[in-house]
Amino acid sequence: MKKLVRDKIPEFATYASYRQLKPDEREDALKDKIVEEANEVRDATDDQNLLEELADVYTVLEAILDFKKISKEELLKQVEAKKDEKGGFSKFLLMDTDN
Predict the structure, then answer these.
(1) pTM above threshold 0.85
(2) Contacts by residues 33-41 (CB-CB < 8 Å, ≥ 24 positions apart)
(3) Distances (CA, A) of 66 to 44, 53, 59, 62, 72
(4) Confidence band for 10, pLDDT divided at 50, 70 and 90
């Protein structure tokens, strides 16, 4: 199995081999990692596990922002613009296109 791991994993997971990704491999690895972590959010078994998985998603999101040189302020500005245009998720609306 090949996947992006946190910086300190090699210190205690000594059974595996590691290499530093080349610059042209990093964006795809980060995108794959955020999908992996989002799936773990979906599969969380309790509130503590959910919090841990959300923290992982946030950490990967921060890494993507850093890699792409996007500030948190830019991200939050985009979040607000999208909310203004399309709203948030507070009403829990489910769209069904099978009608």
Answers:
(1) yes
(2) 33/3, 33/4, 33/60, 33/63, 34/60, 34/61, 34/64, 36/3
(3) 27, 20, 11, 6, 9
(4) very high
| pLDDT of 13 | 96
Segment 18-68, tens digit of pLDDT = 999 999 999 999 999 999 999 999 999 999 999 999 999 999 999 999 999
Sort 64 into a burial class: Cβ within 10 Å, 0-12 / 13-18 / 19+: middle
CA atoms of 90 and 93, how far apart (whole Å): 8
Cα→Cα distances 93→23, 45, 57, 84, 88, Å = 40, 24, 24, 17, 10
